[in-house]
C-alpha cells in the first residue's frame, strides 16, 4: 500500500498545483483576426482605414436605394423592367405607388445609410484624438463629414424626419428629428468639409474619387436648392463653376461612361473594379441589358413618356435608352426572350417596350465588367443646371440662360440643327424649361422623382400613375424599424 | 486452473480405462484406487430462467482442475482424494461452493447476480444501480440500436425513448438529424450534448452504431447536473464496447448489411397538359397553342432513382488476465437517391483497459473515422418548380434549358461538391484505487477533426430547345477550396468515494475539469482552371479569383474558447429504501467577461424505493415501485465565442484612374460585454413500477423546465448602424417546457414464444414566457426569413410559431371584393384575407398565429417476439399537434409548376371557395394559412425478421451464432402532408418546420447477416 501512496500523493500534488496556477488566464480568450473597438483607430494608418471604410459603404448594393432604382421607377422616367414576373409583387408595385411598408428594399436602404453614417462617426469622433499629421487629420475628418452629409441627404429626401445620429452609441430609444434639423446638420457638415478638403486638381491621380472641395460645394448647392434657399444654392454652384476645374465631356455618353471616369465632368463618383467580388459595384448589373448580351437583370426600363419628352433629334435619347437591335461597342442588343418586346394595356396603348438604361452600359464581354461601372453621384452638367435654376429664381435669367445653354450645346455634339439655345427669360416659363432640361439631361440617374416633388409638380405629373398627395412624397419608414422601436419611431403620414 | 474439454470419446476412453483398472483392482482386491478416481456428475441450472447453463465452470477448489458443463448443463468431474469442495460459476451469477463429501451427484442452481438483475446505469462520472438512481435516465442497449438501419447513431434513438424527439433534417447522405429532449429549451442551440467514453462532443456522426454498447439519455436536472454547464438540453452518454476481465477468450463478430433505398412518395405535381391549361389562363408567357400536344416530363422521375447502402462491421474483443480489448472496423457507404450525392465512412475503434496492479488501471478509447461526402446540388427544389411541358434534352442529346430554374440534370452533371476529412475522438485515462473506498481518475480526451471542401464548376452553357442561350451557364470555370480544422481537448480529474456500512451506502465524487477548443478555417476560390478533371482542382497563383486585398480569400476562427469547472456529487442511500443526491457544479467560460464568467449550478434529488418497504413485501406481484423527484439548475453558453466583443470589420473602396483597391476598417457589429450564463431550472417527478417479477414495467415522469436569461440574437434598430439583419446577443428570453412522459413494457414467454411490447409517449407544452427582458429592446423574435418572416416567437406561444394572414374563402365577385377590406393588389378570384383586428384595413396587424412546429404529443410503439430460431420485431413512431409551413410552394419570384390541388382553382363565380384563380405569383402567394399543413404522422419505422441458423450447422464452420435477417425501414407513413416527408427538422429553432424543398427521406429494404465466432 505504501508504495502506491507515495506516487499517488505526488500525482495529486501535481494536479492540484496545476489547477490553482494559471487558472484565470486560461479563460481569457481574445477575438482572433479582428480588432475590437477599444483598440481601433489609434494611429495615422488606422485613421486612413477608417475613412476608406466610410467610402466602402457606397460599394454596397443596398446603398443604391435598397438594390433597385426606386426613385426612377416611381417617376415618369422608368418602370420596373426585367421580365414581367421578376419582383412583380415587390418592386413592380412602385410603378403605380402601390408599394407597402414591409418591402426589404426599404429596410436595406435605411440600414445601409445608417451603417455608412456610423462609419463616418467613427472618423469624426475618434480621429481627432490621434497623434498624426494635422493636415491629413483635418482632411480625413472633412471627407467623413462630406460623406455623412451625403448619406443624410438621401435619408431626408427619402423619408423626411429621420433619427439624427451624430455620435457613436446613440440611445436605442432615439426618435425622429425634424427634417429642418437634419438639413441644418447636413449644411453644417458640408460647410466644415469645404474648408479642409483639397480641390480636385490638387488630388493625386491614384486618389481620385475622394471627396474634393468641389464635391462638397456642389452637394451643398444641391442641398440648398432642395430647401428652396436659392441664394445659397446660387453661391455655391457658382463657386464650383468659377473654380474652372470642371467642364462638360464633349461626348454625352462619356459623361456616365468609362471614358469619362474621373474626367473633367466628374464632381463626385464611386470607383469600382470590374469583378463580381470585393471592389465591384453591382449597381450597373441591376439595370444591365437582360438576355443577350447578358449584362444584368434589366431593371429600370425607360418609359415611352420619357422617350417622347426628348426634342427631335436630341442625341441624348440614344444616350439614355438602349433599344433592341442597337449595336453598341460592336455588340448587337437582342434582349431577353421572356420579356415581351411590347406591352400594351387593354386599350392598345403602349405601356412599355423592351429597352434598357444606356447610362449604365459598360464595355466588356461579360456580366463582371458591369461591376466596374463608376456611378456618378454629382456631375458638372447637374451643377450647371442647379446654378441655372437658382439664378432664375433669384431673378437673374440672363446668367441662368448662359449655363442652361452650355448643357444644350454639349448635347448637340456639334450639330447646330438641333437643340436650339433657349432664350426665354420669363421666370415661370424658364423654370419649367429648366426642369425639362434636367429631365432630358439627367434621366435614369435617380434625380427625376425628387425633382418633381421639390418643385411641387409631382401631383400633376405623377397623379395619373397613382401618386397620392400628402403620402407618396415620402417613402414609408420600414415596418420592421417601427416594430423594433416599440413606439419611439412613428410612421410617415397616410402610410397606415 | 486448467479446464479440460470432456469430449465423448475422451470420456469413453476414461471410463474404459477406469473399468479395466477397476477390474484389475477388484481382481487384486485393492479398493483404494476406486476411492481415488471418483467421478461426480450433475447439472447446473440458472435460478432466473430455470434453464440449464451450458459452459458453466465446475472446478475443484484449491486446485487447477476443472471442467465445463455441456450443451445440456451436465458435467462430470474426476475427484481425487483430498478434494473437499466444488466451485460452480458462470458469468452473471453468484458463484457457489458445495462440499463434495461422498456425493456422486451434485446438482446446483446458481443465483443470478444482484447487479445483473438490477440494471446498472451509466451516469455522469460514474455508474450507479438503477435502484439507486434519483434522476430520470433512459437506457438503450446495443441490441436496440442496431434494429433499424441507422445511417447515424442519433437516428437509432428515434422512437425508442420517451421525451426524445429525433427529426431528420434532410435525407441527403451524411446529414445528421436534430435531437430534442423534452421540448425546445432555448432560442439558440437546443441540442443535447453527447459524452462518448468521457469525451464531451456536440455530435456523434463519426460513430459506428455497431461499436456502441449502450446509450444513456439523461433528462432531468439531477441526472444532467454533473454536466451542469452544458446539460441544459439533456445529455446523451454513449458507452462503446469493450471486453470483460476474466473472460479469457477472444470473440469475433461480423455483421454485413446491404440495403436498397427508394423514394417513398413523389409530390403530386401537374403534368404537361394540366400545366399548359393553367399557363394559358394566366396572362403572359408561356402560352400553348395545342395543349394536347405538349410534352410531359416528370422531373421527379428524372432525378430520383434507387440507390444502395453497404454497411459492414468486423469486431474482435476479449480479455486476458489483466487487460481487455475491443477492436472494431466498420465500413459504411451510402449512395444518394439523387445522382452525385453520397457518403462513405470508415471507422476504426480501439478500446483497451489494462490493470497494471490490482489498484492501478489505465485505458484508452480511440475512434478514428475518415469520411468522404459528395453533396447534391440542390435539385429537389428545381424539379419541383420546372415546367413539365419542357423536354429535358435537345435533339442532339444535350441538356435543354428550363425557364426560371435551370435544367436539374445539367445541374447535377456540372456539379462537383465534396467534403472529405477525418474525425478522431479519443481519451486515455488512469484510475487508481486506494484506501479501499477511494478511486482517483484522470483522463485526457481529444476531439480532433479536419475537413476539406472542394467545389468545382466547369465552363458550360445550357441552350434552350430552340438553340438560344439560357441563363444557366458558367463562362469561366471556378474552383472553391476550403479547409477547417478543430481540436478540443478535455482534461478531467475526479476523486470517487464509495463506502457501505450496515444499512448506509455513500457514493461521492469531486472533480475538476478544463476544456479548450480551437477551430480555424481557410478558404479561397479561383477561376479559369486549366482543365476540368479532378486532377486539376488546385489553386495556383495565376488562377486565384479577385485581385489585391481580400480577393476571394478567407481565413478566420470558428471557435476559440475554453472552460474550467468544479464538480461535486454525493449520493446517500439508506437500506436501499431512501436515496438522496446532491450535486453542485461551478463553471467558468471564456465567452463571458470576468464579472459574469462563473455560474453555479446546484441540484437536489430524492428517491424512495417503496417496494423495499416491509409493508410492500406482501404484495409480491409488485416487484418494483419507486418514487423519485429532482430539482436543479443547469447552464448553457452555446453562443459564438466573440459575441461579447465589439469587433471591427474589413471593407474595401476603390479610387484612382485605373480603379485601385484600397482597404478600409470600421466598426462592425456591436458586442455585448454584459453577457452571462443562460440557466435552465428543471423539476421532475417520476414513478417507476414493476409488476409480476418485472414482466410489466413502467416509468412515468412529469417535467417542468424553465430556461431564463436565454442568450438570443435580437434585431436592433437600423439607426445604430450595424447594418441590415445584424443582431446583437442579449440575455433576453424565457421559455417554458413541460409535459408528461411515460413508457410501459411487457415481456413474457408463452410456450416457446417469448415476446415483449413497449409503448412510449410524451407530451410537450412549449411556451415563450418573455422576449426582450433586460435588453431594453422588446423586439419580437422573428425567424424563417423567406419572403419576409414566417415565424414569430412571442409571449404565450411556442418557439418558432408560424405567423401570417388567415384566409377565409375566395372573393367570388366584385361585390364581395368591395364589401370586405382588402389590399390594393387583390382581385376577384383571390383569397380573402381575414381582418383579424377588425379595423377595416388589411395590413401587418392582421398577421396572426397560424400554428406551431413543435408537436404536442410524440409516441412510439415497439414489439418483438422470438420463436425457436425466428425473431421478429417492428417499431411504429408518430407525433401530432405540429404544423408544417409549405414554403416551397409560395416562393415564386417567377413562373413555376404547381401542386395538384391548384387544378381545383377558381375559374368563375361559385367554382371554388378554397383554391384561388391561377397565377404565377403575387397576391395569392404571400405567407398565409393556405400554406400551413398538418404535420402529424404515423410511421412504420422498422420491421425486422431474423432467423438464426441451427447451432449444428453454424458450428461446422466454427461460427457460434449465424443470424440472417431482412429489414424494412420507413416502409409506410400515414400523413396528410403533401411533401416528401412530414419530418421537417431544423437546427435553427426559429425556422423549424419550414419545408423549403429538402432532400427526401427514403424507404430502405435490407438484407443482412450477423456472425459471432
Tell me the layout of helices and strands.
The complex is a heterodimer of chains A (496) and B (1013).
Chain A: H1 2-20, H2 44-56, H3 70-74, E1 78-81, H4 104-126, H5 134-159, H6 179-196, H7 213-227, H8 230-242, E2 266-270, H9 283-287, E3 299-302, H10 304-309, E4 321-323, E5 327-328, E6 331-332, E7 342-344, E8 350-353, E9 355-357, H11 367-370, E10 375-379, H12 380-393, H13 397-412, H14 427-442, H15 448-454, H16 458-462, H17 479-485
Antiparallel strand pairs in A: 1-3, 2-10, 4-9, 5-6, 7-8
Chain B: E1 2-4, H1 8-28, H2 32-36, E2 38-46, E3 57-60, E4 65-68, E5 74-79, E6 85-89, E7 96-99, E8 108-110, H3 114-117, E9 120-123, E10 126-129, E11 137-141, H4 142-145, E12 164-167, E13 178-181, E14 193-196, E15 199-201, E16 212-218, H5 221-224, E17 235-240, E18 250-263, H6 272-281, H7 299-303, E19 307-319, E20 323-335, E21 342-355, E22 360-374, H8 379-385, H9 408-413, E23 416-434, E24 438-457, E25 460-463, E26 469-474, E27 478-501, E28 504-527, E29 553-574, E30 578-589, E31 598-609, E32 622-636, E33 648-655, E34 660-667, E35 678-691, E36 696-708, E37 711-715, E38 727-731, E39 733-750, E40 753-763, E41 765-771, E42 781-785, E43 789-793, E44 802-804, E45 807-810, H10 814-819, E46 831-833, E47 848-851, E48 857-867, E49 870-880, E50 883-885, H11 887-890, E51 932-934, E52 937-948, H12 951-956, E53 961-975, E54 1002-1012
Parallel strand pairs in B: 1-4, 2-8, 14-17
Antiparallel strand pairs in B: 2-5, 3-4, 3-6, 6-7, 9-10, 11-16, 12-13, 14-15, 16-17, 18-19, 18-54, 19-20, 20-21, 21-22, 22-23, 23-24, 24-27, 25-26, 27-28, 28-29, 29-30, 30-31, 31-32, 32-35, 33-34, 35-36, 36-39, 37-38, 39-40, 39-41, 40-48, 42-43, 44-47, 45-46, 48-49, 49-52, 50-51, 52-53, 53-54
Summarize the structure in words:
The complex is a heterodimer of chains A (496) and B (1013). Helices cover 43% and strands 7% of the residues of chain A. By secondary structure, chain A is mainly α. In chain A, strands 1-3 form a two-stranded antiparallel ribbon. In chain A, a hairpin with a 2-residue loop joins strand 5 and strand 6. Helix content of chain B is 8%, strand content 48%. The model of chain B is unreliable at 1-8, 28-35 and 547-551 (pLDDT under 50).
Amino acid at each position: 500500500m505504501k508504495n502506491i501512496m507515495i506516487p499517488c500523493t505526488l500525482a495529486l500534488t501535481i494536479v492540484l498545483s496545476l489547477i490553482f496556477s494559471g487558472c484565470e488566464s486560461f479563460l481569457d480568450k481574445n477575438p482572433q483576426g479582428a480588432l475590437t473597438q477599444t483598440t481601433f483607430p489609434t494611429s495615422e494608418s488606422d485613421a486612413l482605414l477608417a475613412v476608406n471604410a466610410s467610402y466602402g459603404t457606397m460599394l454596397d448594393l443596398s446603398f443604391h436605394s435598397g438594390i433597385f432604382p426606386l426613385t426612377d421607377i416611381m417617376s415618369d422616367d422608368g418602370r420596373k423592367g426585367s421580365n414581367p414576373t421578376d419582383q412583380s409583387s415587390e418592386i413592380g408595385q412602385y410603378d403605380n405607388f402601390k408599394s407597402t411598408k414591409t418591402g426589404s428594399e426599404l429596410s436595406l436602404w435605411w440600414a445601409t445609410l445608417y451603417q455608412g453614417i456610423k462609419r463616418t462617426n467613427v472618423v469624426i469622433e475618434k480621429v481627432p484624438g490621434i497623434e498624426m499629421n494635422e493636415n491629413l487629420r483635418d482632411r480625413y475628418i472633412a471627407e467623413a463629414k462630406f460623406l455623412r452629409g451625403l448619406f443624410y441627404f438621401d435619408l431626408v429626401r427619402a423619408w423626411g424626419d429621420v433619427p439624427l445620429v451624430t455620435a457613436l452609441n446613440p440611445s436605442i430609444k432615439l426618435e425622429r428629428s425634424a427634417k429642418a434639423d437634419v438639413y441644418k446638420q447636413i449644411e453644417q457638415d458640408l460647410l466644415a468639409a469645404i474648408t479642409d478638403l483639397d480641390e480636385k486638381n490638387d488630388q493625386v491621380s491614384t486618389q481620385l474619387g475622394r471627396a474634393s472641395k468641389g464635391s462638397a460645394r456642389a452637394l451643398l448647392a444641391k442641398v440648398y436648392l432642395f430647401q428652396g434657399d436659392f441664394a445659397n444654392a446660387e453661391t455655391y454652384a457658382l463657386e464650383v463653376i468659377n473654380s474652372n476645374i470642371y467642364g462638360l465631356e464633349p461626348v454625352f455618353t462619356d459623361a456616365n461612361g468609362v471614358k469619362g471616369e474621373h474626367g473633367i465632368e466628374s464632381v463626385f463618383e464611386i470607383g469600382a473594379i470590374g469583378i463580381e467580388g470585393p471592389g465591384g459595384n453591382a449597381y450597373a448589373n441591376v439595370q444591365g441589358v437582360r438576355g443577350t448580351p447578358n449584362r444584368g437583370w434589366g431593371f429600370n426600363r425607360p418609359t415611352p413618356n420619357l422617350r417622347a419628352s426628348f426634342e427631335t433629334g436630341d442625341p441624348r435619347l440614344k444616350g439614355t435608352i438602349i433599344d433592341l437591335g442597337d449595336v453598341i461597342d460592336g455588340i448587337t442588343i437582342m434582349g431577353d426572350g421572356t420579356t415581351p418586346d411590347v406591352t400594351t394595356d387593354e386599350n392598345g396603348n403602349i405601356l412599355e417596350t423592351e429597352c434598357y438604361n444606356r447610362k449604365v452600359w459598360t464595355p466588356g464581354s461579360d456580366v463582371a465588367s458591369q461591376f466596374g461601372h463608376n456611378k456618378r453621384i454629382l456631375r458638372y452638367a447637374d451643377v450647371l443646371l442647379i446654378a441655372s435654376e437658382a439664378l432664375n429664381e433669384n431673378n437673374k435669367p440672363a446668367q441662368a440662360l448662359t449655363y442652361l445653354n452650355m448643357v444644350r450645346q454639349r448635347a448637340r455634339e456639334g450639330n447646330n440643327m438641333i437643340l436650339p439655345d433657349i432664350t426665354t427669360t420669363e421666370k415661370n416659363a424658364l423654370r419649367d424649361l429648366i426642369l425639362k432640361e434636367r429631365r432630358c439631361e439627367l434621366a435614369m440617374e435617380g434625380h427625376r422623382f425628387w425633382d418633381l416633388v421639390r418643385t411641387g409638380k409631382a401631383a400633376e405629373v405623377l397623379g395619373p400613375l397613382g401618386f397620392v398627395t400628402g403620402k407618396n412624397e415620402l417613402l414609408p419608414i420600414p415596418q420592421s424599424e417601427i416594430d423594433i422601436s416599440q413606439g419611439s419611431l412613428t410612421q410617415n403620414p397616410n402610410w397606415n | 486452473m486448467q479446464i479440460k474439454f470432456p469430449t465423448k470419446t475422451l470420456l469413453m476412453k476414461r471410463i474404459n480405462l477406469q473399468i479395466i483398472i477397476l477390474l484389475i483392482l477388484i481382481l487384486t482386491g485393492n479398493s483404494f484406487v476406486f476411492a481415488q478416481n471418483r467421478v461426480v456428475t450433475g447439472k447446473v441450472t440458472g435460478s432466473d430462467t430455470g434453464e440449464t447453463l451450458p459452459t458453466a465452470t465446475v472446478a475443484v477448489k484449491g486446485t487447477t482442475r476443472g471442467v465445463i458443463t455441456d450443451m445440456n448443463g451436465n458435467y462430470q468431474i474426476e475427484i481425487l482424494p483430498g478434494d473437499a469442495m466444488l466451485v460452480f460459476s458462470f458469468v452473471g451469477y453468484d458463484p457457489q461452493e458445495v462440499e463434495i463429501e461422498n456425493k456422486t451427484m451434485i446438482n446446483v442452481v446458481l443465483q443470478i447476480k444482484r447487479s445483473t438483475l438490477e440494471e446498472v446505469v451509466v451516469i455522469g462520472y460514474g455508474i450507479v444501480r438503477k435502484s439507486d438512481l434519483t434522476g430520470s435516465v433512459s437506457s438503450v442497449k446495443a441490441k436496440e440500436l442496431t434494429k433499424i438501419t441507422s445511417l447515424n447513431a442519433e437516428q437509432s434513438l428515434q422512437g425508442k425513448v420517451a421525451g426524445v424527439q429525433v427529426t431528420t433534417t434532410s435525407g441527403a447522405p451524411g446529414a445528421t438529424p436534430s435531437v430534442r429532449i423534452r421540448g425546445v429549451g432555448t432560442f439558440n442551440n437546443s441540442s443535447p450534448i453527447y459524452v462518448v467514453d468521457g469525451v464531451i462532443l456536440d455530435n456523434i456522426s463519426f460513430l459506428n452504431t455497431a461499436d456502441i454498447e449502450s446509450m444513456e439519455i439523461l433528462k432531468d436536472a439531477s441526472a444532467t447536473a454533473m454536466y451542469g454547464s452544458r446539460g441544459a438540453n439533456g445529455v446523451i452518454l454513449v458507452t462503446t464496447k469493450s471486453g470483460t476481465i476474466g473472460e479469457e477468450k477472444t470473440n469475433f463478430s461480423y455483421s454485413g448489411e446491404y440495403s436498397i433505398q427508394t423514394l417513398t412518395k413523389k409530390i403530386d405535381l401537374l403534368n404537361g397538359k394540366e400545366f399548359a391549361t393553367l399557363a394559358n389562363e394566366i396572362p403572359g408567357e408561356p402560352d400553348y397553342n395545342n395543349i394536347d400536344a405538349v410534352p410531359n416530363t416528370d422531373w421527379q422521375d428524372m432525378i430520383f432513382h434507387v440507390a444502395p447502402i453497404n454497411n459492414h462491421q468486423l469486431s474482435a474483443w476479449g480479455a486476458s488476465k489483466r487487460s481487455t480489448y475491443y477492436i472494431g472496423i466498420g465500413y459504411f457507404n451510402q449512395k444518394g437517391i439523387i445522382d452525385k450525392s453520397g457518403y462513405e465512412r470508415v471507422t476504426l475503434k480501439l478500446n483497451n483497459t489494462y490493470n497494471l496492479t490490482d489498484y492501478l488501471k489505465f485505458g484508452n478509447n480511440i475512434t478514428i473515422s475518415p469520411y468522404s461526402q459528395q453533396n447534391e446540388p440542390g435539385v429537389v427544389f428545381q424539379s419541383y418548380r420546372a415546367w413539365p411541358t419542357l423536354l429535358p434534352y435537345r435533339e442532339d442529346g444535350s441538356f435543354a434549358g428550363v425557364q426560371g430554374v435551370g435544367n436539374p440534370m445539367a445541374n447535377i452533371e456540372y456539379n462537383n461538391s465534396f467534403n472529405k476529412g477525418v474525425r478522431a475522438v479519443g481519451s486515455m485515462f488512469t484510475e487508481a484505487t486506494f484506501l479501499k473506498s477511494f478511486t482517483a481518475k484522470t483522463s485526457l480526451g481529444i476531439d480532433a477533426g479536419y475537413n476539406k471542401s472542394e467545389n468545382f464548376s466547369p465552363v458550360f452553357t445550357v441552350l434552350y430547345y430552340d438553340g438560344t442561350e439560357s441563363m444557366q451557364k458558367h463562362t469561366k470555370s471556378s474552383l472553391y477550396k476550403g479547409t477547417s480544422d478543430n481540436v478540443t481537448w478535455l482534461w478531467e480529474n475526479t476523486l470517487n468515494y464509495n463506502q457501505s456500512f450496515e444499512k448506509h451506502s455513500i457514493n461521492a465524487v469531486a472533480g475538476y475539469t478544463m476544456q479548450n477548443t480551437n477551430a480555424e478555417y481557410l478558404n479561397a476560390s479561383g477561376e479559369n482552371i486549366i482543365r476540368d478533371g479532378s486532377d486539376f482542382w488546385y489553386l495556383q497563383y495565376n488562377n486565384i479569383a479577385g485581385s489585391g486585398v481580400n480577393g476571394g480569400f478567407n481565413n478566420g476562427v470558428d471557435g476559440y474558447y475554453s472552460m474550467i469547472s468544479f464538480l461535486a456529487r454525493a449520493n446517500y442511500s439508506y437500506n436501499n429504501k431512501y436515496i438522496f443526491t446532491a450535486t453542485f457544479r461551478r463553471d467558468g467560460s471564456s465567452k463571458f467577461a470576468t464579472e459574469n464568467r462563473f455560474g453555479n449550478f446546484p441540484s437536489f434529488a430524492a428517491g424512495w424505493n417503496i417496494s423495499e418497504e416491509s409493508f410492500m413485501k406482501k404484495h409480491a406481484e409488485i416487484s418494483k415501485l419507486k418514487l423519485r423527484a429532482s430539482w436543479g439548475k443547469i447552464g448553457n453558453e452555446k453562443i459564438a465565442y466573440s459575441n461579447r466583443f465589439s469587433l471591427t470589420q474589413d471593407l474595401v473602396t476603390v479610387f484612382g484612374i485605373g480603379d485601385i483597391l484600397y482597404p478600409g476598417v470600421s466598426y462592425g457589429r456591436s458586442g455585448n460585454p454584459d453577457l452571462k450564463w443562460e440557466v435552465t431550472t428543471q423539476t421532475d417527478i417520476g414513478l417507476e413500477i414493476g409488476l409480476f417479477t418485472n414482466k410489466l414495467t413502467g416509468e412515468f415522469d412529469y417535467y417542468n423546465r424553465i430556461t431564463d436569461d436565454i442568450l438570443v440574437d435580437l434585431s436592433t434598430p437600423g439607426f445604430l448602424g450595424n447594418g441590415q439583419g445584424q443582431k446583437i446577443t442579449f440575455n433576453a428570453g424565457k421559455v417554458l417546457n413541460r409535459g408528461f412522459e411515460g413508457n410501459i413494457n411487457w415481456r413474457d414467454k408463452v410456450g416457446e414464444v417469448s415476446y415483449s411490447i413497449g409503448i412510449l409517449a410524451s407530451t410537450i407544452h412549449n411556451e415563450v414566457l418573455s422576449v426582450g427582458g433586460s435588453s431594453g429592446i422588446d423586439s419580437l423574435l422573428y425567424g424563417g426569413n423567406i419572403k419576409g418572416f414566417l415565424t414569430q416567437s412571442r409571449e404565450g406561444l411556442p418557439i418558432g410559431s408560424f405567423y401570417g394572414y388567415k384566409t377565409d374563402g375566395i372573393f367570388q365577385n366584385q361585390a364581395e371584393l368591395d364589401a370586405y377590406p382588402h389590399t390594393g393588389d387583390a382581385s376577384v378570384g383571390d383569397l380573402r384575407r381575414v381582418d383579424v383586428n377588425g379595423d377595416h384595413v388589411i395590413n401587418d396587424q392582421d398577421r396572426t398565429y397560424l400554428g406551431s412546429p413543435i408537436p404536442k404529443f410524440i409516441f412510439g410503439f415497439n414489439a418483438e417476439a422470438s420463436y425457436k430460431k425466428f425473431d421478429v420485431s417492428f417499431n411504429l413512431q408518430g407525433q401530432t399537434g405540429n404544423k408544417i409551413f409549405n414554403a416551397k410552394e409560395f416562393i415564386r419570384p417567377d413562373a413555376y409548376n404547381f401542386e395538384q390541388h391548384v387544378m381545383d382553382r377558381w375559374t368563375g363565380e361559385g367554382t371554388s371557395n378554397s383554391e384561388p384563380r391561377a397565377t404565377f405569383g403575387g397576391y395569392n402567394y404571400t405567407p398565409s394559412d393556405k400554406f400551413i399543413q398538418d404535420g402529424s404522422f404515423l410511421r412504420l419505422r422498422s420491421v425486422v425478421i431474423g432467423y438464426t441458423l441451427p447451432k449444428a450447422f453454424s458450428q461446422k464452420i466454427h461460427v457460434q451464432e449465424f443470424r440472417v435477417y431482412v429489414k424494412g425501414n420507413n416502409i409506410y407513413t400515414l400523413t396528410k402532408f403533401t411533401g416528401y416527408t412530414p419530418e421537417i427538422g431544423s437546427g435553427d429553432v426559429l425556422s423549424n418546420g419550414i419545408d423549403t424543398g429538402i432532400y427526401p427521406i427514403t424507404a430502405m429494404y435490407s438484407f443482412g447477416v450477423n456472425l459471432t465466432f
